[in-house]
Amino acid sequence: MRPNQLSESIDFLSPDIVIATAPYHHSLFRRNTEYDVPVITPANQTGIWVHNVADPLLVAIGSTQDISSLANLEATDELNPDTETFLLSDLLSVDIDLTDLTTTLDGQADYEAALNSNDIGGSYTHLTTNAPPDYRNNWGDLTVQGVVPGADGTGVEKTTSIALLTLHRNGLVSSRDIDAGKFGLEALDEIGPNRADTLRDAGFTSKEDVANTSPHELQSLDGFGRKTAQKSHASATALEDGNVHRTSDATIPRADPVFIDIETDGLSPTIVWLIGVLDSASDRYLTFTTRDPDAKGKAVENFMMWYTANASNRPIVAYHGQGFDFPVLKDHIQRHCSRYVDAWEDAWKFDPYWWAVKNNNAILPGRTNKLEEVAEGLGWETDDTGLTGGAVAHVMQRWLANPCEETEPDWEKHEAYCEDDVRSMAYIFDAIKDADRLDGIATTSDATESDDENVQTAQGTLSDF
């Protein structure tokens, strides 16, 4: 990661703590940023360190001997045994044997022995730098959660990426993974490391510099054809001015849309437990939900009952709907309320993400095309619940596996997360609808220009340094 990318990423993410995965990252951070936040390097940690500014608490340890200090911290009330504490180290490693297809937790025996030999009464989630953020598993009495992107336990080289982790009082961890290439000049469409070097050599050190020049001047640079010059300039302009820029005259629905977002128990869902709906005709927000694990089709059926009675002649709009919401709803309508199959098939469905990105009709101002990033780029002030889609799905999985008071979701918090997604999507839709056409942008590939860089556009996926 280049220094300007590091500084820009910290400015964008505003973390309370930085976890560095190698000792030299600590000095790199201090040398290239002005931010006064704690930097923890588990691989170089000596003794015990407690971050007691926020709740829940984060404790970093360097060896199993440090675990003995936890009992003393509980006794002196520095740690509250009645609330969740996150214990960070590199002492546990998830090892995956790709030949035998088995998984082991290296370091588990010594780690558990240290915990069991001390009078420790609190509840702990054990964070390891040797597993990725989407890894979470119970190993006996240990709840183990990964924190480093690319640490998959296979020995494969780790990726260069950033994970923004949010720690919750119930022990869950939600994560936004951001590709480091989404910062600096590499954040621009069509710009990879080689073209970023070309821009820097020509005096362009920031996205603002690129936005303030002309596509014609960019086209004079080595490796920049017409398409690259136009798209990189348009991308820089969108990121700098925080506006959508349309690149075609393709139309979008003008009738009053029905904006929806669904919450499920994962990417191959067994239940759609919540459908949030914003009816733009009345500006009413509606919630269709089920809190009964045995009534898995209730939310879908009630939504379709409402839609067919009140809005069947208006478009259903879902961000990334083509890739998730629409096929999932179709499947669950067929499973649970097949009498609405024809109505669903006849419904006018529109996906702003698909229209803008997949069909090249607009350039969006987010660092990526994820809903929250685009809305943020446009100035939307999100309702910060600290949740992500993955975290919500994990909570639902726990509840479905064992519906009880201990696993019951915070329904109101999850519903607020869904509502914010729906309203931010409507905000994006309105921005697309009101956007001006950007002159001179070709929406098809320029056949005369070769592109030998392995480039992800600035509107791809998000990603530790």
TrEMBL record:
UniProt region (Disordered), positions on chain:
443-465
Biased segments, Polar residues type: 455-465
Q: Which GO terms describe its molecular function?
A: nucleic acid binding; nucleotide binding
What SUPFAM superfamilies does this protein's entry cite?
Answer: Rad51 N-terminal domain-like (SSF47794), Ribonuclease H-like (SSF53098)
Q: Which InterPro entries match?
A: DNA_repair_Rad51/TF_NusA_a-hlx, RNaseH-like_sf, RNaseH_sf, YprB_RNase_H-like_dom
The residues that cross the membrane are none
Boundaries of every YprB ribonuclease H-like domain copy = 258-431
Q: What is this protein called?
A: YprB ribonuclease H-like domain-containing protein
Which species is this record about?
Natronococcus jeotgali DSM 18795
Q: What is the lineage of its organism?
A: Archaea, Methanobacteriati, Methanobacteriota, Stenosarchaea group, Halobacteria
